[in-house]
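To whoever is on call:

I kicked off a structure prediction for a single chain this morning and the downstream step that reads the tokens threw a length-mismatch warning. I double-checked the sequence; it's 154 residues and nothing unusual in it as far as I can see. Pasting both halves so you can look.
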Amino acid sequence: IRIPASRGAGTRIEFRSPDPAANPYLVMALCLAAGLDGIENELEAPEPIGKNMYLLTEEQIADMNIDVLPATLGEACDAFEEDKYIQEVLGEHISKKYLEAKRKEWHEMYFLFLKEKSAWFLSYLKTLLMHCNLQPVDYLHRKIPLSALYGVMG
């Protein structure tokens, strides 16, 4: 949720969905609950950053105490599991089923990625070894000098 800096008759609140793949009903429920919680507990909104976040280094972001969103679905699942407020808002049943579904999705996606990456890597390694005049099984039985590999990769 964003409130642009301009004030007056055109003042508005913008709702920017955090992820186009997110369930819009759950997102809206959580945003409304968080807003209501902020009003009821008289929480103060943090000061605006006023800088282009994409130009900041990880160190600058840490120095400014800016929370960073999870980088993967697996990290998001871990954060979801630790966030008791979100689980309270959604209820035990929805929280449990949602987390189960997302963990399953993450594991399937992750292992598919590993499988594809492994196939690519093995193909690359086979090509690399052939360029070094080695059979694919040779790398298991003897040491390959790095200089031989650098010549092919460079």
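Update from on-call: the warning came from a stale cache, not from the record. Cleared it. Sanity check on the structure: The helical segments are 24-40, 58-63, 73-82, 84-90, 92-131, 138-141, 146-153.
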